[in-house]
C-alpha cells in the first residue's frame, strides 16, 4: 500500500475510534470530576497540577522489578494482538514510520513523587489502535514489558491523546533505565500504568489485573482521587 493511503487509513480509523469512545472518555475522572483533589495551578487538562498526596521532584527516580532488560533496536519487536481485526508485529522501522507525536506532560508515581513538564516524543496509543482496529468487544488492554511486567488499562483511558509509546525524552533516546527503547506513558493515571520496555499490547474483552494490580494496587489508578489501592 502507498504510504499516503496508509496514513489516510490510520487517520480515518483514529476518527472512528475517537467517536466510539467519546462518551466513555468524557465520563472518566480526569475529565468529569468537579472537584479533582490536589493543589497548584490548573493544568491544560483543567486539573490542579499536583494531585493529592503528591510531592514535586526534579529528579527522576528509577523504579523496576530489579532487572533492566537490554533490548537492542534490531531485536526490538512490538506485538499488538488480542481482540483486534488486524494484529501486527512491528519492527523498529515500522514503528518509527507511524505518525509521531511530541508532547509535554506530567508523571505521577504512586510512591508520591511527581515530575512536571516532561517532554516526550512517541506514537500515540490511539494511532496504534487505529492500525490494529479493536473489535467492538474490546474494553481493556494488558501491556507486557520485556522484563515480565504487566499492567492493565481501560481503553477510555488508553486512547486519550497524551498516552504515548515514547522513544525520546528531553530530545534524547529514552535511556534504558527509564524503559528504553520504548515505554508507555499515562500522564492522567499513576505511572505504573505505563509499561517500561514495552513488548506487547493485548486488547481484552474484559478487565484483568496486571503485576501491581494483583498485589493490591488499584485497577483504575486516578491520581486526583488518591486512587492508589483496591
Ligand atoms: N516494565 C516495567 N514497567 C514499569 C515498571 C516496572 O517495574 N517494569 N514500574 C512502574 C512504576 S511503579 C513506575 S512509577 C514507573 C517508573 O518509571 P521510571 O523508572 O522511568 O521513573 O514505571 C512503571 N512501569
Ligand atoms: Mo510507581
TrEMBL record:
Domain (Oxidoreductase molybdopterin-binding) spans 69-212
Region annotation (Disordered) ranges: 26-48
Quote the biased-composition stretches of kind Basic and acidic residues, using this chain's numbering: 26-44
Q: InterPro entries in the record, alphabetically?
A: OxRdtase_Mopterin-bd_dom, OxRdtase_Mopterin-bd_sf
Q: Which PANTHER family match?
A: OXIDOREDUCTASE MOLYBDOPTERIN-BINDING DOMAIN-CONTAINING PROTEIN (PTHR43032:SF4), PROTEIN-METHIONINE-SULFOXIDE REDUCTASE (PTHR43032)
Protein name in UniProt: Sulfite oxidase-like oxidoreductase
Where does this protein come from, organism-wise?
Runella rosea
Amino acid at each position: 500500500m502507498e504510504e499516503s493511503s496508509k496514513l489516510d487509513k490510520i487517520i480515518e480509523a483514529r476518527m472512528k475510534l475517537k467517536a466510539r469512545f467519546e462518551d466513555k472518555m468524557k465520563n472518566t475522572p480526569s475529565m468529569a470530576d468537579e472537584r479533582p483533589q490536589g493543589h497548584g495551578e490548573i493544568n491544560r487538562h483543567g486539573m490542579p497540577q499536583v494531585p493529592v498526596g503528591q510531592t514535586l521532584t526534579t529528579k527522576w527516580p528509577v523504579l523496576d522489578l530489579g532487572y533492566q532488560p537490554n533490548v537492542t533496536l534490531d531485536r526490538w519487536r512490538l506485538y499488538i494482538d488480542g481482540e483486534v481485526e488486524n494484529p501486527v508485529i512491528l519492527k523498529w522501522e515500522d514503528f518509527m514510520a507511524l505518525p509521531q507525536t511530541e508532547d509535554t506532560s506530567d508523571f505521577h508515581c504512586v510512591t508520591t513523587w511527581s515530575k512536571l513538564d516532561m517532554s516526550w516524543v512517541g506514537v500515540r496509543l490511539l494511532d496504534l489502535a487505529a492500525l490494529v482496529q479493536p473489535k467492538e468487544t474490546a474494553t481493556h488492554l494488558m501491556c507486557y514489558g520485556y522484563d515480565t511486567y504487566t499492567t492493565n488499562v481501560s481503553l477510555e483511558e488508553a486512547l486519550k491523546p497524551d498516552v504515548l509509546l515514547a522513544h525520546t525524552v528531553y530530545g534524547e533516546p529514552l535511556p534504558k533505565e527509564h524503559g528504553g527503547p520504548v515505554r508507555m506513558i499515562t500522564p492522567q493515571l499513576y505511572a505504573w500504568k505505563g509499561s517500561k520496555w514495552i513488548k506487547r499490547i493485548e486488547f481484552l474483552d474484559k478487565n484483568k489485573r496486571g503485576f501491581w494490580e494483583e498485589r493490591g494496587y488499584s485497577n483504575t489508578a486516578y491520581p486526583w482521587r488518591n486512587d492508589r489501592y483496591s
